[in-house]
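Q: How do we represent a protein-ligand complex in a form that can be generated token by token?
A: Start from the inputs.
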Amino acid sequence: MLEAYRDIAPQTTLDEIRALAEVLQGRTIQHINSTRSGGGVAEILRRFVPLTESLGIRARWDVISGPPEFYEVTKAFHNALQGGEADFAARDFDIYLACVKENAARLTLAGDVIVVHDPQPAYLLEYTRPDGAHAVWRCHIDVSRPHERVWRFLRRAVAKYEAAIFHVPQFAQDLPIPQLLIAPSIDPLSDKNRELTDAEVTAVTDRFGIDRRRPILVQVSRFDRFKDPLGVIAAYRLVRQTFDCQLVLAGGGADDDPEGAEVLAEVQAAAAGDPDVFVLELAADSHVAINALQRAATVVLQKSLREGFGLTVAEALWKGTPVVAGAVGGIPTQVFNGVNGFLVHSPEGAAFRLRYLLSHPKQARRMGSRGREHVRRNFLITRHLRDYLLLMITCLYGTKASGPLQLTGGTVEPAVR
Ligand code: UDP
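Then emit the structure tokens for the protein with uridine-5'-diphosphate bound:
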């Protein structure tokens, strides 16, 4: 399976993976998160597990579950940790803990290294801690300015892990454990990112009634306020004053996100009556459709107000499509302003940059191709896999004497200046 990446990923990364995997034969890595579909974490794990297994390392992926009230609380935690306003009652914390406790009784924790993803399952290890297992907590959200009470609560659990992993240095916290940086990744061979023929792209745009002869602006995101879909519509309206363009807002729900329907209704209301705005509700397995939309796009938007990383940015850049994105969270590690896209802070700023890209197609293409190279060097699944293997080795064979865990993952220098 690794061989399939030979002409795509940097050769040094593939060599490193083979060497590291030899040391880890027969070992098990176990991932635990809160959804099998929807959102970036599930997107990565779906591809990661078979690839890890193909190297002779066992990979398990377990998912916690709970009643709707659990997801309401965890979504409120998620929003608060990303800096949103929120009020919590003692009951919310009780609901959360009771559900995690039930999951701890149900799940088998069986990895040599256990990676617990995001706040939802963070307290699992409080209730079940297998002897000898090394457990790390991985944070995929933007915790640069977390809600104090919720972070204090979460920190009590996180502090007992062997290490915490963040996407970018800005998310690092005051913690008594080592903190590592590992950036997420995309799989260039998945249906979401593989090459498509022009006919395949047109088949998708035709299916939705999108006109490929006119410029197309695309944002692919869960319907979530932090993704600012209303800000995207506002930017599009400003651009429409001078360009006859179309806007596609494509998204589906995630099992662990109960707010989606409400935000979708707001977006539909804001878009109503404009035949050039396409609000597409996509099924969870619409990978080829998303791939095609990101390729058909003249510009991809990711106008987030908070963002852990923004896989959709890497996906678009990989396809050579320039990106206009919010200057938040992990996005600036992917988009270098004016080099492979633009970073923006408002709908007006987004409209300004969109107008530039629509009126300078040559520069837009050049930006897109720089974006692809940046992703190739830094954000492919192979680099990510290497970092996980390094993590396993560091957990299993590192000694206290060697000091804090150190990884080199997620180098972020721009590929072309
Ligand atoms: N995605 C999808 N269907 C949708 C919306 C998003 O498959 O309707 C995918 C998207 O292509 C990306 C991931 O889900 O791979 C979202 O990851 P990102 O880091 O952009 O945001 P998150 O949802 O994790 O906040």
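Residues 198-378 form a domain with the Rossmann fold fold (CATH 3.40.50.2000). The chain has two domains: 2-185+380-414, 198-378.
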